[in-house]
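Treating backbone geometry as a discrete language has practical consequences that deserve illustration. The amino acid sequence and the backbone structure tokens for this protein are reproduced below.
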Amino acid sequence: MSTWDEPLRTALGGSARTFKDKLDLHTLGDLLRYYPRRYDRRGDLTDLAVLQEGEDVTVQAEVLDARRRTIPARGKRRRMDMLEVTVTDGTGRLHLTFFNRGSFHQGKLVPGRLAMISGRVSTYRGRRQLDHPEYQLLEGEELSEEEARAYADQLIPVYPAVKGLDSARIAVAVDMVLARVDELPDPLPPQVRERRRLEGIAEALRGVHRPETEQDIGRARRRLKWDEAFVLQLALAMRRHKAEELPARPRPGADDGILAAFDAQLPFTLTDGQTQVGQRLAELLAGTHPMHSLLQGDVGAGKTLVALRAMLRVVDSGGQAVMLAPTEVLAQQHHRSITEMLGSLARAGQIDGAEHATRVSLLTGSMGAATRREALLEAASGQAGIVVGTHALLQEHVSFADLGFVVVDEQHRFGVEQRDALREKAAEGRPHVLVMTATPIPRTVAMTVYGDLDVVSLTQLPSGRAGVSTHVVPALEKPHFLARAWERVREEVGKGRQAFVVCPRIGDNDDDSSASVLDVQTRLQKEVLPDLRVAPLHGRMAPEEKDEAMRAFTAGDIDVLVSTTVIEVGVDVPNATTMVIMDADRFGVSQLHQLRGRVGRGDLPGLCLLVTEAPEGTSARTRLDAVASTTDGFELSRVDLEMRREGDVLGDAQSGARSSLRMLTLVRDEELIGEAREEASRQMAEDPDLTYAPLAEALDTLLPEERAEYLDKG
């Protein structure tokens, strides 16, 4: 009885080493899941007399003669062994050429032998020929026309090849392993296969590797997609089940605490979406198991306000809340905006502090020793109900009196170990966790990457937002468009407004600084906009310099801020109305959408100009055109997913392993993923211990320990 994790050498012998070294395939299961990337047909069955150059053809012919000769070395070309074979079908002649394996083919293609021969017709010195054709020797008489046509129509799998291991050799190895496929246990439970009308694993593997019809491929692919989707959804269902058993201290809030006081002083009314999401988070925070939610919302939807209200609820319950930001610029911005929104409610212990006030502390890696000690003391003593910071919060010596709630802004920027380190700082049970993203997530990704989370969405933008219009500026094709872009910046500044200029690089140490912060800032200041106040902002600046630049820009003391993507999220300067993004094709769809969200945030309309040298018709321009066509982040998230590979939803991007999704595509398989999620939940309810051994083994195979750990910590 064979197993999925049986070493490949048991089937391939010594050649298994080649598959290990070239393709990182170690087991029978590895090779069986190395699927063809496409299928070819041998070509039309054709008489030799009517062959046309460039056609893919199959002919039935008799070998007339075979001659070997040596082509001498010339220049860098080495000496080659060549075999020329002449064949005929009675209507004409055709020449076959083989290089460097002449003796092998000459021993088979002997005069008088019949063969089916397939290849692409070319012409050399007026002769029609096939170079390195496929052939199958025929025993005895010719095939009937029906048999020959069936041979010509046969589907030929084409495998992803690498140097030293071509598709044909991979196909031979797959044939050897397929001989054992009936011995392999089926990982999908029988009841799932029956309910979803799926064929067995042996039929599916034969259907994908050696199909007889297109229908065979379709049935096989559907079954193999189910394997991937079901195992993934089962892993997420197991994690949900495990999370439901963990303890957490309920944080129900108070009717007359700091949250009520904050709501009473708000100068605007919450949107219906903010109210509904707030109520949902309140329910989850009041639970005895840790909340683990994803708050997604388009740029400017008010996620920070929703998160702050949830943090205040935890403070009202006697606990502390942490907001973890990916950059110092964003952490400082969050600290400033939260402090300003709270006003006197953030000044506990001070003369002008409100009755229910708390403190909001900031902790970053570059703070001075005295300021840092004060922030650490406020966190450890519980004086600070809210602590905002960067990865500095994760260090061992940072402690809290009662950490009850963790808000992670832009979770994808933090490693698994970093997020987990903060959760371990809770004194009792696990803290409640809210993950925020301003990159709206398609439903299929929410069911996979975030399948263990309670997903809440803010789709409604606050009233009074003027919005932003976006245009592509083709700098090479129409250089006057770029000149006009700088004129628009000058016009906006002339109206008392401000502008961002975003560059993909800092400069100086970069190989290409043509669109770097330092180069663009110098050109604007000296040549293009010499009368305006232009200043840089980038990661190489000292923390106090970055903070000073942002404060000056916020105060209106800088007209044009030339920056890297450190201003991508969280930065809120309503007076900034224009953004010019240099080399915009170097950014992804979601990142461009995030960047332009920094303008048009107030009652003044925003303008975003995407400068590019990418030619029209390229994928880069298509991406930019998509961003310019809509400001709907949820629509753009689907576009983004369609334009790029899904990546590995099991964390292989961090572990370095091969992708675990070989058949499943998040763009096209939404319905199937939803069905697999239903079946996985049902499986956990009916068989939480996974007594069906082949399924447990499949989970271990497709979700090894390090990936399971990734999901468990994520």
